[in-house]
Amino acid sequence: MELLRYDDIDLSQTVKRSEEDVNNVLDAVSDILKNVRQNKDQALKDYTQKFDKVTIDNLKVTDEEIKEAYDTIDDTLLEALKKAAANIEKFHKKEIPEEWNIEVREGITAGQIVRPINSVGCYIPGGRAAYPSTILMTVIPAKIAGVKKIICCSPPQKDGKIGNAILVAAHLAGADEIYKVGGAQAIGAMAYSTESVPKVEKIVGPGNIFVTAAKKLVFGQVDIEFPAGPSEVLILADKTANAEYIATDILSQAEHDPKASCFFVTDDEKLAEDVSEIVDKKTEDAPRSEIIKEALANSGKIILTENFEDAIYVTNEYAPEHLVIMTKDDEGVLSKINNAGSIFLGKYSPVACGDYGSGTNHVLPTGGGAKMYSGLSTESFIKKPTVQKITQEGLEKISKTCIPIAEYEGLFAHVDSIKTRLNK
Ligand SMILES: NC(=O)c1ccc[n+]([C@@H]2O[C@H](COP(=O)([O-])OP(=O)(O)OC[C@H]3O[C@@H](n4cnc5c(N)ncnc54)[C@H](O)[C@@H]3O)[C@@H](O)[C@H]2O)c1
Ligand SMILES: N[C@H](CO)Cc1c[nH]c[nH+]1
Ligand SMILES: [Zn+2]
């Protein structure tokens, strides 16, 4: 892995990552979306043939296919999915926002109510790996929020089916419909509707650069959560950390995608060298070594700083999807972290646990999005309309605040709507 000294680099250039690639495919993805809008199911089938090399007749997964998935799934995997689902459910129930109402001034009460989005589409990646875990991470919070219609889209495998674990996870989590289509074309289908796939109000879920570009382009037509692109991890550690643990966290995110990004930041030169050596060695033996090598060559960096404050600065500038902190004072370091999607404290908290079932969500902002957004949560599926009630006395008092501002803005119908009531 490439080792860079903080003092020798232009940090703003070093932390740049896959967002640039997303921008490079916007034109191609825009053509895909246009075709889906015009030719609907036929476009979905043509792109599935072109990109996934599969012929699909029926896009919608049938009840028989779900039953077959239950019949064929491995018992241990089924139990694991159920336990993961229970943990994710417990964590996400805690995220339900409260309804509240307060007296703002005498005669004016105001508050918020909590309402679900009506329909949601969950994108479940399926190109380089199958992601039943992503079904749990997207459908469960939507269900807890009270979303009435939850559909899922995922690319079919070479046999034209969706993997049994994805179908079982979708059923366990409570998805209403599942469609065998992936990539930008799936996002287009959920944004515009086709003969088979209904339009939804919000699209969530991670994916490769084509999926991420499509979500950016349909934003406005539908809501999206944020760009959740190729996986990332940054490990922030001092000399007390275990080099092998750090190396395993790097490899675990690098194996997702050649466009994954993995950074290790430390102020300890020996640890930096050890991690570099272990990563290189483990890469050779890894089952997905080709993907890992490409990812690390593109965006795998070890940054060595002179002091730990600089290491924290680099971390906040990179704003990782996942941040692992392994230091002698993890909580103290945490208090200085502002920008990260999900944070893992201490040597026994590998990112893989958050990826699968310790309860937190794994759909997280990438490409520096953690500077502006939080990860997917129950709140992502909820709207919070405000409500107010004003008494006659309250109106008299607040009119003295509102009328001068309305007059300044030249909006006299606004003034009139208040004065008319006062004069009655
Ligand atoms: N940020 C997160 O929360 C999170 C969570 C899980 C996974 N991920 C990421 O999701 C991504 C999954 O990517 P994937 O590729 O495995 O699956 P994917 O389902 O996102 O993409 C596969 C689809 O891409 C389309 N495609 C392939 N080549 C194309 C081309 N040349 N032009 C247009 N479309 C094309 C195909 O339609 C195919 O079905 C990875 O980058 C992984 O790191 C992110
Ligand atoms: N690490 C991914 C998010 O970037 C989530 C995931 C799913 N399965 C394994 N990992
Ligand atoms: Zn992962």
Notes on the protein architecture:
The chain contains 17 helices and 16 strands. The chain has a 6-stranded parallel sheet with strand order 1-12-11-10-13-14, sandwiched between helices. A 5-stranded parallel sheet has the order 7-6-5-8-9, sandwiched between helices. Strands 2-3-16 form a 3-stranded antiparallel sheet. By secondary structure, it is an alpha/beta fold. L-histidinol (HSO) binds next to helix 6.
Topology record:
Layout: E1 2-5, H1 11-14, H2 19-24, H3 26-52, H4 63-72, H5 75-93, E2 100-105, E3 108-112, E4 115-116, E5 119-123, H6 132-145, E6 149-154, H7 164-173, E7 177-180, H8 183-192, E8 202-204, H9 209-218, E9 223-224, E10 232-237, H10 243-254, E11 261-266, H11 269-285, H12 289-299, E12 300-304, H13 308-318, E13 322-326, H14 330-334, E14 342-345, H15 351-356, E15 382-383, E16 386-390, H16 392-408, H17 412-423
Helix pairs in contact: 3-8, 3-9, 4-7, 5-6, 5-7, 6-7, 8-9, 10-11, 16-17
This protein binds nicotinamide-adenine-dinucleotide (NAD), L-histidinol and zinc ion (ZN).
Nicotinamide-adenine-dinucleotide (NAD) is lined by residues 51-52, 125-129, 131, 134, 155, 182-184, 206-208, 210-211, 228, 230-231, 256-257, 260, 321, 362-364, 366.
In short:
The chain has 424 residues and is α/β, with parallel strands linked by helices. 47% of the residues lie in helices and 17% in strands.
